[in-house]
Amino acid sequence: MDAPKAPARPAPALPASASPTPASPAPAPPASGASRSALGELDLRVAGCGACARLVAWREEVARTKRAAFADWTYWGRPVPGFGPPDARLLIVGLAPAAHGGNRTGRMFTGDRSGDVLYQALYDVGLASQPTAVSVDDGLELYGVRITSPVHCAPPANRPTPGERDTCRPWLVQELRLLRPTLRAVVVLGAFGWQAALPAFAEAGWTVPRPRPAFAHGTRVPLPAPDLPREPGGRKDGLDGAEGPGGVEVFGCFHVSQRNTFTGRLTPAMLREVLSTAAGVAGLT
């Protein structure tokens, strides 16, 4: 498929409160879920972050030099914010944007082969409006699902450092806090995302087992939130569903990288199974 020749999207104007480094923890989210304005504000702040010098230099260099196949594109070349509705019940946590995928298009898993696999699976299980994602204006909608990553900038060789992961963590913590009233299930793609996400869940208020569970495909870990009040009759396992904010269930899944999908380590059927199970827990199917 030929790449669109129009710019992926214009750079947003950052609000006056935007900070070049992760901000202090966000205030408690509204009872009914994250408001679009609150999550939109966070997304703009993420897009304006310049905290990691190595990542800033790399993402901007890629945006200048481009790939020959995308020479007519205006690359995004910034941190890539999360994508999906503010009242999502299911969250998908990846690794980091691809240099010529999200770093080009400005949307998570959009414009690369990993995204081709993920969005096809989401479409197959009824969580996306279409099976492809090529640009931010392609009409794609997610149903009850949001996609994010623990590192928002494209890293060299697709390998963020532990320091870059930790520097970016406050953004994920804030996003989790905003999603917390509606969030019921999380699919974490890959060991790096797993290692990054569990500390973020702990900071955002969920109870993470100690020792922390190891990553494996098919791992399923409930994270209760005992610090949140529950409605009478709320389930003891922390998954209160519609009765009020509670726990989440976290699922491990091999990453949708080309290495995994080309070798068959992760098949479309395996991915659909994890997504379907998580969607059921989230009350989306």
TrEMBL record:
Keywords linked to the UniProt accession: 4Fe-4S, DNA damage, DNA repair, Hydrolase, Iron, Iron-sulfur, Metal-binding
The keyword Membrane appears for this protein: no
Superkingdom, natural source: Bacteria
Biased composition (Basic and acidic residues): 228-239
Annotated region (Disordered), positions in chain: 1-35, 217-242
Domain annotation Uracil-DNA glycosylase-like: ranges: 81-275
One Pfam family from the record: UDG
Signal sequence bounds: none
Family as reported in the entry's similarity comment: Belongs to the uracil-DNA glycosylase (UDG) superfamily. Type 5 (UDGb) family.
Record protein name field: Type-5 uracil-DNA glycosylase
Organism: Streptomyces asoensis
Taxon lineage: Bacteria, Bacillati, Actinomycetota, Actinomycetes, Kitasatosporales
